[in-house]
Amino acid sequence: QVQLVESGGGLVQAGGSLRLSCAASGRTFSNYVMGWFRQAPGKEREFVAHISRSGGSTGYADSVKSRFTISRGNAKSTVYLHMNSLKPEDTAVYYCAAGERLSFGPQSYDYWGQGTQVTVSS
Q1: Neighbouring residues of 64: CB distance < 8 A, sequence distance ≥ 6
Q2: Cα within 13 Å of Cα(46), Cβ side
Q3: Is 79 helix (H, G, I), strand (E, B) or coil?
Q4: What value does the CA radius of gyration of the chain take, rounded to a whole number of Å?
């Protein structure tokens, strides 16, 4: 089992920045690829970014590319999501997830955190 706990969400004005963190415990963190997903009210959970076990490979949704950066610190068992130039449409609950292979689909990830709310005001 892997336990994931997100933090860093909050209320920010459009154009602002936030850094989300996801701390993992349980099994060896570096054995898993990590992903960030988000879900807005009334919408399906959508892919945001993912990162390989070593951190050498990353992927992003088109809607966040060039604004968001995913990174990980295996020594700290933590994955981060740096969010810049935030827009009101980025408002959602953000979830981190751990899995066996890089994927854009949430069904490929085995472990999930409880989520952290990000609200961007216009």
Answers
A1: 48, 49, 83, 90
A2: 16
A3: strand
A4: 13
Question: Could you give phi then psi for residue 95, rounded to 5 degrees?
Answer: -120, 140
What is the per-residue pLDDT for 27?
A: 86
Contact 21, 8 (CB under 8 A): yes
CA–CA dist 28, 87 (Å, integer): 35
The 10s digit of each residue's pLDDT in 85-99 is 999 999 999 999 999
Contacts of residue 74, Cβ cutoff 8 Å, sequence gap at least 6 = 29, 30, 55
d(CA 32, CA 16): 30
Q: If you average pLDDT over residues 53-60, what whole number do you get?
A: 96
* Residues 6 or more apart whose Cβ sits within 8 Å of residue 70: 34, 36, 49, 50, 51, 58, 60, 79, 80, 81, 82
Inter-residue contact 104 to 36 (CB < 8 Å): no
Residue 89 in tokens: 């449409």
Tokens coding 61: 């949704």
Both structure tokens of 90: 């980025």
- Other CB atoms within a 10 A radius of the CB of residue 56 amount to 7
